[in-house]
Amino acid sequence: MKILFPVDGSEYSVHAAHVIARRAELQNFNPEVCVLNVQKAAELMIPALKLRRSAATNRQSEAAFKKVRDILKNVKTKEKVVIGNPAQVIAEEADREKADLIVMGSRGLSDFAKLFLGSVSTAVLARTTVPVMLIRSEYTSEPGKELKVCVAVDGSPYSEAAARYIVAHREMFGEKPDVRVVTVVDVAEAIAYEYPTDVPLPEIPAEREAAEKNMDEIQQLIPEIEEKGKKEAMSTIRPIFEQANFPVTEVALTGDPGTEIANYAKTEKLDLVIMGTRGRDNVASVILGSVTSRVAADGSVPLLVIPA
């Protein structure tokens, strides 16, 4: 596997380096890593100032490489410096290097409006079809521990792309990974489709009695709604793993998808969450407002985004 690893000298790049190093310890997984540092172009400068900027660029690049060099000492790497717009360069270098994966340390913020807007992570996702792994916190997985991985699915083509990526790159997850295929059924949303909420509140006893009966009927329908939602989400995903003889555990949750997946990742102490999403789209539709946004906002578990 070829990995493009952009670094900027931050603690987030260091966290990401540890993730790569830990993955490289897995049997049969020998990645080739291009460690990339992108420096902004020095425009409209006189020659003397450009020379100073060039020297400063070399120092900054070396400082960024030095912070991850020892961590990746047992990994096959090469170092590369490119001048230009960071997101554009990263996307272009991913194509040029024929990368299978981009691994990025991402600052991110908990506030949705600031989570990705203006960040390099979002801009890269908007420009590439190469899967991107986002690392926002220190990686604490123990060496030799069985990897616990969650792939979130909803029956869409994006979920199928995520499942196919896992199967195609199974060596990345270790010899016997604990892979959970997780779907979340939003029962409240499903009920809202069947029972409109824009009806007047009951005022007389007969109306209240009818409303209570209606609610009882809805409560009885919940198990059926949950089962239907799970079946629809898993129907196209299950065959992908079965045909590859790749054992997985199916998990169905109920509630708000983004919240439930983020909580599940924390409580189960997962090593990785994998999600499919639209690729090469405008920034707002790639991330903000999506389930991916909510999971990324948590930031405690590495997130692998598979553009489709």
UniProtKB/TrEMBL annotation:
Domain UspA: 2-136, 148-307
One Pfam family of this chain: Usp
Signal peptide: none
CDD domains hit by this protein: USP-like, USP_At3g01520-like
Cited PANTHER family: STRESS RESPONSE PROTEIN NHAX, UNIVERSAL STRESS PROTEIN UP12
UniProt similarity note: Belongs to the universal stress protein A family.
Protein name: Universal stress protein
Organism for this UniProt entry: Mesosutterella multiformis
